[in-house]
Amino acid sequence: MEFITVNQDNIEQEHICCAISDKKGETCVSSKKAWMKERFEDGLVFRKLNERGKVFIEYIPAEKAWYPITAEGYMHINCFWVSGKFKGQGIANQLLEQCIEDAKEKGKRGLTVLSSTKKMPFLSDPKYLKYKGFQVADTCNPYYELLYLPFDEEAPIPTFNDCAKQGAIQDKGMVLYYTNQCPHTDKYAPLLKEFAEKHGTTVTLHKIESVEQAQNAPAPFTTYSFFYDGKLVTNEIFSEKKFEKFLASIGK
Prior knowledge:
It is a single chain. The protein is α+β, with helices and mostly antiparallel strands and about 250 residues long. It has helices at about 30-40, 90-105, 125-130, 185-200, 210-215, 240-250, and strands at about 5, 45-50, 55-60, 70, 75-80, 110-115, 135-140, 145-150, 160, 175-180, 205, 225-230, 230-235. A seven-stranded mixed β-sheet has the order 1-2-3-5-6-8-7. The chain is globular, with a radius of gyration of 18 Å. Mean pLDDT is about 95; it is low at about 20-25.
């Protein structure tokens, strides 16, 4: 079983596992790869199985993570995904162990990862992570948990930044905050605006384009956070059908 680290030297040749294709066979890799290229100098690591599948772990020093967290000296896991036929083979354990070893070699004090009170789309599985020794460091509305795995007893407990604690904003109406950390947002964020206009309404888009903006964001999952009348609704990317279902739920 061979693992590959995607870096500046091979990123153009290697596929990005989370963006192999959607149901129509389209790929959404260019925005993600551009985002990654700018993050490598910040210490981003993208480690994947040398197979054509969604099997990878992506992490970065927490000080450079695109999340509103304070976790000095930690390594933050951006995304951790083992899917399909690759489940149940111990691959997740291997990827996590490689991340732990790398973090220790780089002098980190532990790992952090964004999760939730129960398994949700686009967020790491809390049951698996807690089984592997992760603990809850902090929580915030409506369902987020910041998990951490300290390497020593003196490691500080990470926290969410105050800006994200309430899961709320001042703006009324429909508002989306997003980044290119996910390969699909560059496609689906503009489409959301089109979906809204098609149904006679509007969505305000806020694209987060720097680590500073991300660390001051109003919700933990900066990749995609959809608000309605000031409250966080979902971190799940809307398809047109799901957006129509949401509109029906609010009487539009």
